[in-house]
Amino acid sequence: MKNQEVYNKFTDHFKRVLTLAQDVAASLHHQSIEPLHLLYCLSNERGSLGASVLYKNQLTPDRVRIVLQILNNYQTRN
Question: Per residue of the chain (78 residues), what is the pLDDT tens digit?
Fold first, then answer.
């Protein structure tokens, strides 16, 4: 199966999450999309099942962003 065929099977919500995660990774000067980038973008995707599950478990965009900032600061120091 080709990459485009796999991508086309994703929901519109997840396609947006992937695009935004790529932007977040690039803005932090990361070479690749990490799980935390995906988690942050998924938590911001209003109306998606993933965002609802995260919110119900008290994993809000603000909390994920804080962790992302802490890890990014740690990585830039080392």
Answer: 788 899 899 999 899 999 999 999 999 888 999 999 999 999 999 888 999 999 999 999 999 989 888 888 877 776
Please report which helix (H) or strand (E) contains residue 3, including its range: helix 3-8
User: In Å, how far are 14, 22, 49, 54 from 43, measured between CA atoms?
Assistant: 11, 15, 10, 6
Dihedral over alpha carbons 54, 49, 11, 69 (to 10 degrees)? -20
Please give the Cα distance from 39 to 45 (Å, whole number).
10
Separation of alpha carbons 30 and 36, rounded Å: 12
Q: Cα dist. 9→3, 12, 13, 18, 38 in Å?
A: 10, 9, 12, 13, 18
